[in-house]
Design goal:
The chain contains 7 helices and 5 strands, in the order βαβααβαβαβαα. The protein has helices spanning 27-42, 50-53, 63-76, 90-101, 118-121, 140-156, 165-170; strands at residues 7-11, 46-49, 79-83, 106-110, 129-133. The chain starts with 6 loop residues before the first strand and ends in an 11-residue tail after the last helix.
């Protein structure tokens, strides 16, 4: 956690959320992530979101750029908030693999009634995972419960700070907080 708040990696499906006519993330799904990201930032967190960084698909990064950028952001995250998707997003599954290998606490948002691969549903045997079942409309109460559970997970992360201090770890990782950095 930085002196200014926790770092939260916000993972969500990308390609399966694209509107085929615009090749941008659908407006209703952008709204979900905007509410979640905005609430986390308002609560003092620094949030990494590839969706926001890549302007919902308008500034799509090639794999050779987005993969290392996302991994750098994951390495310095205090917690991961992941919208798993239905079916589970391949990209989110990779990010959950990184999170578990790095010992990051995870809040996994599962779609109501969706089946999930055993490797995701069993992730709690590898790292600290809280599973939340999404309500269909992403009510204000649900979004607030996700924000609070994510902040709690970030606070319980006991990973030792990396050399160079918090600001050095944040540099070049794409995190955005209240100050807009």
């Amino acid at each position: 956690m930085t002196s200014n708040g926790p770092r939260v990696f916000l993972a969500a499906p990308y390609t399966q959320w694209l509107d085929p006519s615009t090749r941008l993330v659908r407006a209703d799904l952008r709204n979900r992530l905007n509410r979640l990201r905005g609430g986390l930032i308002e609560a003092g967190a620094h949030v990494f979101s590839a969706h926001h960084n890549e302007r919902w698909g308008a500034e799509w990064l090639p794999a050779e750029e987005c993969t290392p950028a996302d991994f750098r952001a994951m390495r310095v995250a205090d917690a991961v908030c992941a919208v798993v998707g239905s079916p589970a997003s391949g990209g989110v599954a990779v990010e959950l693999g990184w999170a578990s290998a790095l010992g990051k606490p995870v809040l996994a948002i599962m779609d109501d009634g969706a089946d999930c691969t055993p490797l995701i549903s069993g992730l709690h045997t590898i790292t600290d995972v809280t599973y939340l079942e999404a309500d269909m409309c992403w009510s204000d109460a649900f979004v607030e419960s996700v924000i609070q559970a994510t902040l709690t997970a970030a606070k319980t992360n006991t990973e030792a700070p990396s050399p160079g201090g918090a600001e050095a770890r944040l540099g070049g990782t794409g995190y955005v907080g209240v100050s807009g950095r």
